[in-house]
Amino acid sequence: MNQVQPYEPPRFQGVAAFYHHRLFYPERLIRRVIALAGLRPGDAVLDLGTGPGPLAVSFAEAGMAVTAADPEPLMLEAAAAAARTAGVTLSLWRGGSYELTPEMGPYRLVAIGRAFHWMDRAATLKMLDRIITPGGAVVLFHDAHPDVPENRWFKTAREISDRYSKDAAARTAGRKAGGHRRYEPYLFESAFTQLDGLSVTSRTEIALDEIVGRAYSMSSCTPARLGDRQADFENDLRAALAPLAQDGKFIEIAEMVAVLARRPERRK
Questions:
Q1: Tens-digit pLDDT profile for residues 83-93
Q2: 46 by DSSP, 3-state: which?
């Protein structure tokens, strides 16, 4: 069941500059996670695979003591810059799920945003069981785009990206098998079997340049991986999307999801 992704630390090199085009999780979703997890100001939170730190900064703004972890130095630099802009403090740790040790923490919450599929999920959850406090939790974030007419551009953009991606076959097979975002099989085989799902759905405008920038933020279509195909990729992407625009804009309907997983409470 646990299909381990190859560990490729350089995979996200050079994409930090494009991450601001990605969907970030709204404050009201973070507030609901904090409430359900029973977090209090000062509680220790680990944001594993922090990227440029949007989740880490959100939890820090809510008063948590946050460690932002990522294997990519440029991501940590971006997270530090985001924290300075927000006026909060983060502890930065260069490392990922493969570098976790039992001596870390303990943490009241470990947050993972769009990164769980890059990990050895069973081994990661086993280690998290050792560094998350009793009563603590792991929360897995992702997003989804409902199959509605407004999101036609999203499907088109994904098709173009898959055409240029070296990982297209694996990505397509993963979707047909239920996708890498199905967390439940791994969680139910771990210590964290009490699951609660939270979601927020938004409807926003997005420009073509933002869609192109977001495509470059994906590990399968970074400028470095595209190489001399980058110009062709961008031209094809823009040409395919342009007819779908309304007055030069697109509508994005996105569901932002958090799955909070805790250990079952012991019956007295």
A1: 999 999 999 99
A2: strand
